[in-house]
Design goal:
single chain, 144 residues, alpha+beta, Rossmann fold, 9-stranded mixed sheet, 2 helices, 11 strands, 15% helix, globular
Length: 144
């Protein structure tokens, strides 16, 4: 089992890992996704484990169900666990994200996971994550 400094949510049972430096908007973006129907997996620390050839996301027991809501405090909203990872979101400032990027993937424990770079504070950030998942499941396609 590997533990990462990241936040994770589940959209319709599909795990999204949100990575970025402190203050980059991981919890803020997760909160917006949760407000739109996603479920929290973990905030600030995420555990990755390989199960039946897939990476699964869960929260460490000590922080399970907790999310930091800046300006409000630490809130217990409950969480889902053991969700298969489908997408890694790398948070970058807008001036560091490409308009038409090459397809990116990351190999973790021999498993390839798609990666997208987005600015967490763009209003369209949750929609971009959903679009990336739609591309994965064939509901949309990239034009190359």
């Amino acid at each position: 089992m590997t533990q990462l400094h990241a936040t994770a949510v589940a959209l319709d049972g599909i795990g999204v890992l949100i990575r970025g430096p402190s203050g980059s908007g991981k919890s803020d973006l997760a909160l917006r996704l949760i407000d739109d129907g996603a479920d929290l997996i973990a905030d600030d620390r995420v555990e990755l484990d390989t199960v039946d050839g897939k990476l699964h996301l869960t929260a460490p027991v000590t922080i399970r169900g907790l999310i930091e809501v800046r300006g409000i405090g630490l809130v217990n909203i409950g969480a889902v666990q053991d969700v298969p990872l489908a997408l890694i979101v790398e948070l970058k400032p807008r001036d560091k994200t490409e308009r038409l990027p090459e397809v990116k993937e990351e190999l973790i424990d021999g498993i390839t996971i798609p990666v997208i770079d987005i600015d967490a504070f763009e209003i369209s950030a949750p929609a971009k994550i959903k679009m990336a998942l739609h591309i994965q499941d064939g509901k949309a396609s990239l034009i190359e």
